[in-house]
Amino acid sequence: MTRATCALIDLAALRHNVAQVRHYAPTQRVMAIIKANGYGHGMVRVAQALLDSGPQGAVDAFGVASVDEAVALRVAGVGCPIVLLEGFHRAQELPLIARYQLEPVIHHPSQIDLLAAYPTPAPLSVWLKVDSGMHRLGVAPAQVAQIWGQLRALGSIGTIRLMTHLACADEPDNDYTHAQLSCFATATADLPAERAIANSAAILGWPQALNESQWVRPGLMLYGISPYAHSVGTAYGLQAVMTFMSELIAVNWVRAGEGIGYGQTWRCPEDMRVGVAAVGYGDGYPRHAAMGTPVLIGGHPAPLIGRVSMDMITVDLRHHPWAEVGEPVILWGEGLPVEHIAQAAGTIPYTLLCGVMERVRRVER
Ligand SMILES: *Cc1c(COP(=O)(O)O)cnc(C)c1O
Fold first, then answer.
1. What is the mean pLDDT of the chain?
2. Residue 315 to residue 141: CA distance in whole angstroms
3. Is 35 designated active site?
4. What is the pTM of this model?
5. Cα-to-centroid distance, 337 and ligand 1 (Å)
């Protein structure tokens, strides 16, 4: 018998969420963001499921962080456009980019020199990224026209598309998004190209970002999760794709006054049953989940007690008198939003999903 700890991946929910993206962005093309192993869901499987979801649900491109991720997709037979969101920064990457027909983001003038030194055999499509105020990757607004001209002059570049990234789209009242949108619009006004602006938060909350673009770049919402603090995906018609679960491997009677686990941070207020589930931070369950963070056992919440260990957690079974060894334990997913667990652990859903470790089996359903 193998370890029961697994991440159930609901591919029907994934397809449903793509349909929701299309509902919110009906005229835009969709670049599905599947970096970081498809936000922990299994990148190749996610890509394949999105590609064979039919003419209605299919996506138009994938976005990944690195050449390695892109090559893994090509090797698995993914033929559609793949965008390298961080571009490239070494000459050695260019032969792979050319061979696998990847579409790098151009975000710095130094990349023009690398491209000049390596004229690709076939025209290379690129995405010119403008720093409209996030101040992470992107060329300065005042430089955009010049870099566009330099790219064109290379002769080895095919289609050029434009993009920018919003720093505060998950804050509905933050005016900075307006400032970024107008900065991007002004910097690119004269350039004949398709544009991509919106991540999940902008797709759901900033129609203006959609009006001014032909592409969207959803990540988190594809996986059914809300990009906003204090809300859950179901509020936007989304369905959680991942259910992270394990099972009870021990149920013990512990005496009143005894401490549970490392540091004895929780003491039993009475003689009581304590459950031990086979999941810990070595699986990606957050070490900082606060005491009282719920898990679901038999559909009912049971609170975490004591510290999270590498391979185990301990839970209060006083309200689950029927729960025995082998009982499934849901950590997040169906019936228990990861948004709530993230809040209880002082983090965001992105880190929990990406953090599910390799030793956790991904099981499709
Ligand atoms: C990761 C990423 C996205 C997706 O963001 P979500 O908040 O997950 O929708 C979009 N664009 C860029 C450039 C990214 O790096």
1. 96
2. 53
3. yes
4. 0.97
5. 21
